[in-house]
Amino acid sequence: MKFAVSSTGKTLDADVDPRFGRAPFFVIVDSGTGEVVSVLDNSTAINAAHGAGINAAAMVADAGVDAVITGRVGPKALAVLEKAGVKIISDASGTVAAAVRANLAPSEGPEQATVSAGSSPAGRQGGCRRGNNTPGAGGNRGQGGGCGCGRGRGRQGA
Fold first, then answer.
1. Structural domain tally of the chain?
2. Residue 56 is part of which domain span?
3. What is the mean pLDDT of residues 77-100?
């Protein structure tokens, strides 16, 4: 299995970059050998005014990876990756090598964007990290995404 890890550098010792679309590099790692297969330079997407996530997702999908390991992925990049059959593993941190090791076991549940379409660019109001993205008493619709965990800032029934 080949993983593309959003990274601040080009080696296994580099940190995972929490930003998928604006990560400087994607380190492609073979999970069988644990070695770097290649490194994708994401400078074109980083400098784009719009569409960084979509451009990065297309580049990663074209590299033929099986999964992406990153901090968070926006909904548009998620759609591109899903269409290409690339699995998304979010909320990763630490080094590239540690992130790959931590994700060798198959994860459960459907992939979801970790930054909602209406959230802030920094992703501070992304989806519920508890996996409960159903509307509830905590917030419902609004700027916070309405995951029901109390982080939404919208009004009920809007």
1. 2
2. 2-102
3. 95
